[in-house]
Design goal:
Beta Polymerase, domain 2; about 10% strand; about 475 residues; six-stranded parallel β-sheet; 2 domains; Rossmann fold; alpha/beta
Length: about 475
């Protein structure tokens, strides 16, 4: 056993965010929604017990549970990111942060509560974290540990917003995008084109309505989706095929799409500028990966902005919310430690049940052999009582040690040693699954990865958006 590795370090988080990497790097490691199940299977296949991926406009993070003695977990996550996206590790490694144990749990709590967001207190990240949890659960990679962490993070986030005051002022990436447009233009009376129909686009349209804009056009990959969105949120649908025409009509284009390539490039920008006869065109792209080619901003009278340009806007109104966040961070740190302690205690309980099952299976196997050999029933009865007494004496000290270790905070280490000593990872003939059924799912750090059933779909909101997130 690696004594230099603390037991709680089996929980690990590796990622990058707007604090450590520009959008040009983040988009190269971003996960599109349709590839997430395959990506989760790939990371689980690298000897992790559980895994979840949070990929938004502002961050890409892999949260995983490794075995207790696994000191190379972060390296395997880095290798996974490199191989899955085809990006050399040397190009993104300097931007990564790697957190273990309570610090990893604390970071998840801060992210879900929007304390780590570009727009502090923004409203989209909770739905995105729930979606990441739902996808991992359905992919079978979210077990007891991550489920407990995510569910606790959701509860704390709601509590913070209800009692902490961080959500009193409207704060979201979509509202920040509209605020940026208002800084560049007086948006009142201006025509706006919104490309995208996800939750982020909905937030943009709602923010625009209160800003006194003129016409709001909505474009999507399908006319039916654009029409449904426009009817629900307000605005006029327009087919994406007629984008060149609407680039002449709109003064501000807000892009929050999930297209696999650039929707607007230099050629479209050049054609629009020529037809606008000197009228400026503002392109604000909050998609990650980006859907507006950066080169479009090189065209005269065309001004392009992306998610990273929201930083100055995000600073406004931040001071008051930061004071609230500062009061809550110690609470989140303590909550993270407490959840891990609870999980560790459950691991000790599970191992105790597993040990009882293991020894009982051996005892029953010996008795079966005695009956098969034709031993007299009375002798079998005497043997049964003798084996029961021996079992009680053999197990007394290991079980007491597990209880004491759990009380003193050494549960994971004692659990690992007992499991190794009795070889609990290898069931003996006749052993049942009663212990596992009694204690729930795979305990933290104790067994090889086991397939997990999907969580209910109601556990996560059907959200797309951003932390800013993928729309």
């Amino acid at each position: 056993m690696n004594s230099a590795l603390r037991p709680e370090d089996a929980l690990c988080l590796t990622g990058l965010s707007h604090y450590t990497a520009a959008v040009g790097l983040r988009e190269r490691l971003a996960f599109r929604p349709e590839v997430l199940p395959r990506a989760l299977g790939a990371i689980r296949g690298r000897r992790f017990l559980e895994a979840a991926i949070l990929s938004t406009c502002n961050r890409v993070e892999v949260l995983a549970v490794a075995r207790l003695d696994d000191a190379e977990a972060p390296q395997r996550i880095r290798a996974f990111l490199s191989e899955f996206h085809g990006v050399p590790e040397a190009e993104f490694a300097p931007a990564l942060y790697e957190l273990r144990g309570p610090r990893a749990a604390e970071h998840l709590f801060e992210v879900t509560a929007s304390l780590d967001s570009q727009v502090l207190g923004e409203t989209e990240i909770l739905a995105q974290a729930k979606e990441a949890y739902r996808v991992a659960a359905e992919a079978g990679t979210c077990g007891r540990v991550l489920r407990r962490l995510f569910e606790r993070s959701f509860f704390i986030s709601k509590e913070l917003r209800a009692e902490g005051g961080i959500g009193r002022a409207q704060a979201s990436v979509s509202s920040a995008a509209v605020a940026l447009a208002n800084k560049l233009f007086d948006v009142r009376g201006r025509n706006v084109l919104v490309i995208g129909t996800g939750e982020m686009a909905a937030g943009i349209v709602r923010s625009l309505k209160g800003s006194g804009v003129g016409e709001v056009f909505v474009a999507s990959r399908t006319e039916a989706r654009a029409a449904e969105f426009a009817q629900r949120e307000g605005g006029k649908p327009c087919p994406i095929q007629k984008l060149p025409e609407y680039l002449l009509l709109a003064d501000i284009v807000l892009v929050s799409a999930a297209a696999p390539n650039y929707i607007i490039g230099p050629a479209q920008a050049q054609a629009a500028a020529a037809g606008r006869r000197g009228r400026a065109l503002c392109l604000i792209d909050i998609s990650v990966p980006r859907n507006v080619d950066p080169a479009a901003g090189d065209v005269e009278d065309v001004f392009r902005y992306d998610i990273d340009d929201l930083e100055n806007v995000a600073k406004e109104g931040r001071r008051e919310r930061e004071q609230v966040a500062a009061r809550w961070r110690p609470r989140l740190a303590e909550e993270a430690r407490e959840v891990l302690r609870e999980l560790e205690d459950c691991g000790a309980q599970y191992t105790a049940h597993r040990l009882l099952e293991h020894i009982n299976a051996i005892r029953q196997d010996v008795l079966r052999q005695a009956r098969t050999a034709g031993l007299d029933p009375k002798a079998v009865e005497e043997l049964t009582r003798a084996l029961e007494r021996m079992q009680g004496r053999i197990l007394h000290h290991p079980l007491e040690t597990l209880k004491q270790a759990a009380r003193e905070g050494d549960g994971p280490e004692a659990t690992a040693w007992v499991s190794r000593l009795f070889r609990l990872e290898t069931p003996v003939a006749g052993e049942t699954a009663a212990a596992k059924e009694n204690m729930g799912e795979t305990p933290m750090l104790q067994t090889e990865p086991q397939p997990q059933g999907p969580e209910t779909r109601n556990a996560g909101e059907q959200a797309a958006g951003t932390d800013g997130a993928r729309p």
